[in-house]
Amino acid sequence: MLAALDLATGKLFYRIRPRKRAIEFLAFLKTLRARWAGEKLYVICDNYSPHRNADVRAWCADNEIELIYLPTYGSWLNWVEAEFAALHYFALGGTDHRSHAEQNAAISAYIRWHNTRAEPKTGFATDSPIRTWTHYPVKAA
User: Fold this and answer.
1) Assigned CATH topology for domain 2-131
2) Which residues form the Tc1-like transposase DDE domain (predicted)?
């Protein structure tokens, strides 16, 4: 599964594919680009090799998508990981799906349920100075 979390709405966007190579990741990025045409996109990624593929990086550079890589072993910094944990708990945990199609249907049903109740992700790092520029002095030239 390839997925993205829109922080402005809290909705998940996903594609289930048999493999997760650079070609599938690039196709997913193209669907995100089409959904938010005309806006710069910031995509937070782990260090999985398809995310760092040269063709992927070149296409992103040409299409107003900035890939932001988390530090190694820092996936917990990405809010989508919390959404994956919930998906696992509610759609996959304690189940024994008889086929990939049945498992994919459970994932799809959970994401539809989640997206109907989604709210913007605004409560992160509320007391952190990195959320505003007011903590950094501006030097006059």
Assistant:
1) Nucleotidyltransferase; domain 5 (3.30.420)
2) 1-89
